[in-house]
Amino acid sequence: MSSAIPKTVLRLAATLVLAGGAMLALAAAAEPPASTAPLTGEPAQVKKFLEQRFAGATIGSIAKSPYFGLYEVQFDDQLVYTDAKATYVFVGNVYDAVTKKNLTEAKQRELSRVAFDSLPLQLAMKKVKGNGQRKLAVFSDADCPFCARLEKELKGIDNVTIYTFLFPIDQLHPDAARKSRLIWCSPDRVKAWDAFFESGALPKNNGDCDTPLAATTELGRKMRVSATPTLVFADGSIVPGALPADRLEAEIAQGEAEAARLAAAKK
User: Fold this and answer.
1) Chain segment 117-135, per-residue pLDDT in tens
2) Is 1 part of any domain?
């Protein structure tokens, strides 16, 4: 039996927030990603202590945080905090009381960022709105009510190319995969997708063409997509949820600006 606490416990713990925005709870996560580079100095010591206390857990990135003298540690898709000897592990959000910024969320977005151009966009349905200069990728489930809400919000967004990866969640929506196959096998996939969310109408075919469902499911798993809709912006930041149009517009603009900044920094 592993000493690591399941992710569901972490998410439950993350709902407990203390005054001032810092939440405290002793926890560790299961199945974290392996670190991409060897740790040295103090982070290496912190990793050693954590591995001793949580046998079987693989620790991700570790860095000294600018607050409380704690270290930021990546456990699976959770960012947690610990002291130098890993005596305590804190799960939750740290806020800047002046700017009202969620520092934990910002750091988590940075750590989970992917290279947008590395996404297998040929596996997605491509919809160009306006000049299509901006870009957005969405993992979506045909029977997901929040995905339906997102589709309505996207109507108010222009000048963007939207790549929709079919991501039916069988446990929640057992008929979504069948509907996804019917839509993908339509002569005009985007039109069929839009029509389905408008009226519930499905294309009249057998859904027996080659579909990317297995590949998009695996892609989502590797990217730790656990809910639909999940959005990926131009800078590779990943945000789950059906965002309202004004937030969508702001996130798209921010993603484009950050992508441009990152590209310029590489030159």
Assistant:
1) 999 999 999 999 999 999 9
2) no
